[in-house]
Write a structure and sequence with these properties.
Distance between the termini: 86 Å
Organism: Streptomyces viridochromogenes (strain DSM 40736 / JCM 4977 / BCRC 1201 / Tue 494)
Domain Phosphatidic acid phosphatase type 2/haloperoxidase: 69-180
Order of helices and strands: HHHHHHHHH
CATH architecture: Up-down Bundle
Main location: membrane
Subcellular location: Cell membrane
Largest sheet: none
CATH class: Mainly Alpha
Protein name: Integral membrane protein
């Protein structure tokens, strides 16, 4: 399986050289920016999108806030599970990094000695992006664009073949979508319990937001409202 990319004439290798060739023509400062974005920046950006979406959901205080927050919580969990699934895949395929088999690549990050297929970065960002898309379409679309751009940068940096990235996208998407029903069935009751908590309920719904008609009524609240109505009529 290690010979997946031994031939320099296959489209995977050709595309690798075409994309990585852009790094050779770019100024050094631009490559440094791409290196940071590819290693940390895009992942951080998607994490911030998840946090922004969570903040928006809890502030809005919709009746289905618990299920929405549960779906949002699945995004990072899906990424973690996808990386664990990738461990045996990498060990089975045993594909070396492209710069070990092909000369003349502009490698922006040194010290990559693990196997290349499937890309962990591509797996993580796509799993989080798909999980976020399930929770919120608007934020999810932005995250999907960032994930695709992140995969492009991994090839640009010379540390992955295009098929490494495509495999990561497929793995992240599969885990986030296929396990979503089970995850929601487990996470939603937990989030609903958190929502009812007086101490940590703010995690699901901002304080002062109505929790919907199905929530418990505070003792004495009904009688106070009734008394206020009677006083208004008397006036």
């Amino acid at each position: 399986m290690a010979g997946l990319a031994e031939s320099g004439s296959n489209p995977d290798v050709d595309l690798l050289y075409d994309i990585n060739g852009l790094a050779k023509d770019a100024p050094p400062w631009f490559d440094r920016v791409m290196e940071f974005v590819g290693e940390y920046g895009l992942l951080l950006g998607i994490v911030l999108l998840v946090l922004w979406c969570w903040w928006t959901l809890r502030r809005r205080g919709d009746e289905d806030a618990a299920s929405s927050v549960a779906a949002l919580a699945w995004a990072p969990l899906a990424a973690g599970i996808a990386v664990l699934v990738n461990v045996p895949i990498r060990g089975f395929v045993e594909r070396p990094r492209p710069f070990l088999d092909h000369q003349g690549l502009e490698v922006l990050v040194s010290g990559k000695t693990d196997y290349s297929f499937v890309s962990d970065h591509a797996t993580i960002v796509m799993a989080m992006a798909v999980g976020l898309f399930v929770a919120n379409r608007k934020f999810g679309l932005v995250a999907l664009v960032l994930a695709v751009f992140g995969g492009f940068i991994r090839v640009y940096m010379g540390v992955h073949y295009p098929t490494d990235v495509i495999g990561g996208f497929a793995l992240g998407t599969a885990v986030a979508l296929l396990l979503s029903p089970v995850a929601m069935a487990l996470l939603t009751p937990v989030v609903r319990a958190v929502e009812r908590s007086a101490r940590v309920g703010w995690v699901v719904r901002a304080r002062g937001r109505s929790a919907g008609a199905g929530d418990a009524v505070i003792p004495g609240a009904r009688s106070e409202r009734a008394g206020a109505s009677e006083r208004d009529l008397a006036a």
